């Protein structure tokens, strides 16, 4: 059996290593945004419509983040994509955009995380011809089907789909304390010789510091060398009744277990930041409608090695993958086009200068804000 997988291919004109840009802009607000927050979201939306604005925007909602049962904070996140970093810089440095950003108050509750994605250190794959993520940028919209033989479907295949994998090991200087400890307990033969760091989990309900706003600007002028960005996407909106029954009975429990583990046991997985989001639509009157059947996860890992170890050593992830393949193979109940669920993934390996971030008046634990000391020293 051959597994057909569409892989993103840049157009022939894109033969250089000029990066594309994926920019995440988030506005933190109560579950029902105040007029001030509505105006901030509207202003940001208007800025994307200016000259040299993004080729595509996707808006998602992150509920109760940073995670805390007592917090009434949601985040509206704009995923904005530029084919060319030159266009992004022209937009960002324009008077209208820079004036808006520089005028924000110290308690604004807004943040940005900017990634310059090299085509040599990037992979996008999808189980459907429908495009998502960076593939929606017009200049990157060509998707070719590639034949993936069964023998090639192994742990680490993401690495081999990334063009630069033969010339670069993609290793960061860090390994999480929990991941190292687990490797030692399992007597892994080759444990990476890296600096051990303690990664924070989501705050517990008793942690009141999460509800405290850090006034002013926290700026990260760079990232960690070889930090990994991962975006996972799930569209369940076209599910048939049979498909829903199979997912509920055989797949969903493992998927939820895997995602909960990534979020709650971040050090074990080498995760710096985890966001679970749902697609949202902002109407002209600024009302927002969330589509809970179209979800995605935005995750930053220490590096690709942490991501790979996490996937192959986590029971729920392994079971979710095996259950999905069992039911979606040609002879399965959802094979031969019967399954309508769309899954996509993209990964980008970020060199030190490929990442920057800024958090203005945000809650403690937002994004990579709490890792400023570690990142500044990297």
From TrEMBL:
<keyword id="KW-0408">Iron</keyword>
<keyword id="KW-0349">Heme</keyword>
<protein>
    <recommendedName>
        <fullName>Phenylacetaldoxime dehydratase</fullName>
    </recommendedName>
</protein>
<dbReference type="GO" id="GO:0016829">
    <property type="term" value="F:lyase activity"/>
</dbReference>
<dbReference type="GO" id="GO:0046872">
    <property type="term" value="F:metal ion binding"/>
</dbReference>
<keyword id="KW-0479">Metal-binding</keyword>
<keyword id="KW-0456">Lyase</keyword>
<dbReference type="Pfam" id="PF13816">
    <property type="entry name" value="Dehydratase_hem"/>
</dbReference>
<dbReference type="InterPro" id="IPR025702">
    <property type="entry name" value="OXD"/>
</dbReference>
